[in-house]
Amino acid sequence: MKESLRKLKILQLLTALFRARIIKILIPVVILVIIFIQGRKEIQHINLARVFFELRRMPVSAIVEISLVAFIAVAAMSAYDYLLRRQFKLDVDWKATFRYAWIANTFNNMIGFAGLTGVGLRAILYKKSGVPIKTMGSAVLFLSPIILVGLSLLGWLVIFGVFPAERLFDAHPWLRWAVWGISLYFPFFLLMQRSSLFAKWFHKGEGKLPWNVVIASVIASFLEWACAAVLFWLIVYHDLDHLPFASVIGVYIVAAIAGIISMAPGGIGAFDLTALLGLQTLGIDATPAITALLLFRIFYFLIPWLIGLVLSAFEISPNRRQMKDMITNGVDSSRNAWIKFWGWPSQFGLLGDLGAWALGKLVLASGIILLLSAATPGLINRLRFMENILSLPLMRFSEQLSVVIGIMLIIVSRGISLRIRRAFIWTAGLLVAGAVFTFAKGFDYEEAIILLVVAVILWVSRARFNRESALLSSRSVGIWVVLAFISSLSYYLVGAQIHPKLLRHLPARAQEWFLNPHEYAVTAVIAFISALVLLAAIFALRPNRHIEHLPDAAELEKLSEFLKQEQGNLLSHLLYLGDKSFYWAQEDRVLIPYSRVRDKLVVLGDPIGDKALVGEAIQEFQRYADHYALTAVFYQVSPEYLSIYHENGYNFFKLGEEALVPLDKFTLSGKSNQGLRTAKNKSEREGQQFEVLQPPFSNELLNELRVISNEWLGDRKEKAYSLGWFKEPYLQQAPIALLREAEGRILAFATLAPAYDNNQIISIDLMRHLNETPNGTMDVLFVRLIEWAKENGYAFFNLGMSPLSSVGENANAHREEKLARLVFQYGGHWYGFEGLRRYKEKFSPEWEARYLAYPAGMPLPILTIDLVRLVSRRPAKVEASS
């Protein structure tokens, strides 16, 4: 019984780990640990100095041959996309299909995430050519089970001895089970393709796949893995002792299976260690084996991915509207001719970000290349040639500058991904300077050409860098400092480790060309400090600290004139507080009030102005926010504008409901209103007086109201942003309702907030009272205000919003709204949400929903924290900042 319980607990633990997705992380880790334990002896004998030296001295003819086969191997993966193109009748030309395939496959090889990278990129790229997302979803389901078929078929060839791997199995028997497991997938795939179950789940009931499609699928997958295996053999053939073709292919197949089982991107770690162990069984030392594996990674993964980065950067080009804006901003139109020459289609938002991301990674790779080039030994004949042209001190100085520039490129690559103009200017200069100095330090023309190519790509894409700045947070600064430190440390470790092992094999004269370990350390420190100092000096990613211009008296006067012509909303009166910036869109015909919190511009309510212009105004404001790497969010928007926000890419979260009392239906008669009648009658018997005063107000009255306000606040602090606070210039903008006792002392007061909608709605704003006021005082004040509004011709009286009211009640509501519902029901200890709703229900209001409109993909919990920070700002800080 105890044993059964123990097994049950273990099963429950594994189930919990699976649900938490921890097992997906543990499996590759366990695989890597097993392989490392079994191969650690061989790994210890690796000579990194010899590895880098062999990489640098490879013959040009071998590089050309390997490059050609690598291109064929990567291009072979496009067979999947041509299969999709034919199977789903995609209206995409063959050149675009090849480009899309190259980008998706190379990114998937490098980044992986269980194939999700390739899936996502295919969906994005094919959407450009008009392929619906639904169609691509079906295509991805069709493609997913095909990819492993070719490797499974090759696994059978290993089992039957066509590509022998017995030596590897004898040394590491567990690999035999891995090969059997993957090999059994091939018959399972054939059975699955011809079953009704597969047709039901993967083909939406359209029937079994024809045999010609199944065979084409097997050929496409086999072609991918076979070409990669041939490339692996070719690299081993050139780098090692001409090992037999069949044995090397067998090692590759087993290593590829280990990489697939590990679920790591590109099988990194598991593939490399297994291939190393396999080559060891063929009599190859660890150092040349590692050299071959690095070459395979470079030619099959890294270089194709860099080409994919270039293609993805060029694949994205501005649309007409964006191009018009760029020309208006002074950017020349030469890029337009380039786009027409290449025939690449236009851009939509997500792809624009992808293009900038790709450019940033190209710059990052350029920085890494500079560091590796400086840390690894150059070829002696090149160094001798450069010494005849330049002096040795100048060559060493060029090397040190290359390190500084490399670290700066790594750091500034983030600014390229964010499309910051200042970062683009400095990056272009750094790339050109890096090309010059890496050439001068040792005639390294390969690295110089790469840097110049990246510089050209950056120049061609310069129109994309339309952002003035980005947010400079302490977290960002910390990340840059850590990146600079890691880069400098990596340079030192690689250079210092290679140096002593290399110099033993070089003549005394040649040793003068290389830095000693002490000089590597000094160079690393200088590079680290110089990069930070220069970055701080040029402010490549400096935020624009003048994004918020709080309105002055002239701006508030402009607001008053605007509200006389255009209809406002329930939040318009809060603009007179002066704590929100004004963005005038559509040639001053639409007003968007906002405040900034971290990397967000939070708009209060809906834009004010002609509704027909609101959609264009939102897009204009989005471009304005994007110009500073910020995001536009709309807070407390009304249902009337939801379709406009939706068309501009926003999701919604219900914040609560506004309580609007219809004045034509309001009455104190009836049993349900007995409490209100009682409070009013008691007030009249006690001689309490109600009055509504119009501005301007005397200093004596405002001083008396301030005393009441301070007593009501006590230890609490005023809120800001979406709530009014006691600010005398603000109070002078609207009527104030007073409730006095018989002797004339003010018991309570409330400020009113017009909606600037031709006297249709008026809202209550500040509500303050003395602490010793009798029960029911605020009920009396509300009733008298409602009656006053009715007498003055208003249609509705707004009691304000009830936060989280009626949120998440539906069983199909989003989980965030269901969580908010729990807060509404059980959060009375902190705020009293449900109690506030019940209190306002006494006045029989009509409830109107209010929403938060936020861009798709923005994490709602983080946004909520930022909104809490914004609403909780103290007015004193706001006024001080202005």
Your description of this structure?
- This protein has 38 helices and 12 strands.
- The chain is of the alpha+beta class and 882 residues long.
- Strands 1, 2, 3, 4, 5, 6, 7, 8, 9, 10, 11 and 12 form a 12-stranded mixed β-sheet that branches.
- A hairpin with a 2-residue loop joins strand 2 (590-597) and strand 3.
- Helix 5 (79-87) packs antiparallel against helix 14 (211-239).
- The longest helix is centred in the middle third of the chain and has 30 residues, at 286-315.
- Belongs to the LPG synthase family.
- It comes from Paenibacillus wenxiniae.
Q: SS-based structural class?
A: alpha+beta
Radius of gyration: 35 Å
pLDDT < 50 stretches = 17-23, 317-354, 505-513, 822-832, 877-882
Mean model confidence by pLDDT? 75
Envelope shape: elongated
Q: Give a count of the beta strands, DSSP E runs of length 2 or more.
A: 12
Residue share in β-strands: 5-15%
Our measurement of the CA-to-CA distance between the termini, rounded to an integer number of angstroms, reads 73 Å
Number of helices: 38
How does the major sheet shape up?
Answer: 12 strands, mixed
Keywords: Antibiotic resistance, Cell membrane, Lipid metabolism, Membrane, Transferase, Transmembrane, Transmembrane helix
Membrane topology: Multi-pass membrane protein
Family: Belongs to the LPG synthase family.
Transmembrane segments: 20-39, 60-80, 100-125, 137-162, 174-192, 213-236, 242-261, 298-316, 362-380, 400-416, 423-442, 448-465, 477-500, 520-541
